[in-house]
Amino acid sequence: PVPSPSAPAGGAGATELTVVADAARCIPPTSKWLSQNAALAFEGTAESVSESEAVLRVKTWMYADGVGGTDTVRIMLPAPSTIPMPEFEKGKNYLVAAKGDAKVIGCGYSDVKSAKLQKLYTAAFK
Fold this sequence. Notes:
The protein has 126 residues and is mainly beta. It is built from 2 helices and 6 strands. The chain has helices at residues 31-37, 115-124, and strands at residues 11-18, 40-49, 53-64, 70-76, 93-98, 111-112. The protein has a 6-stranded mixed sheet with strand order 1-4-3-2-5-6, with helices on one face. The longest helix is centred in the last third of the chain and has 10 residues, at 115-124. The N and C termini lie close together (7 Å). 33% of the residues are buried. Mean pLDDT is 84; it is low at 1-9.
């Protein structure tokens, strides 16, 4: 995917996101829903993971509507979530999307990079 023209140039510092732990219902992921609800989306590699946060090195910003654009993203991790969220592991590649309130989108929209998820992101942010 080509980075969004609205995505800021890569920069120092870190974009901060939060994984939510509240109850919600999941519907099967669609590129249309993702493109309409994500304020940012990127591919990155988990550089460090602790109980409270995961730090990802951004490989590609696919979309950033006024947020993001940094070289790293720090994701604050809550207590176990009632909705499916990525379980970050050091060294693995992830596709991550978040809403404008900096909350990571779960339910299969953010996870370890796979061909199926890559196809969803490519369709959403073409």
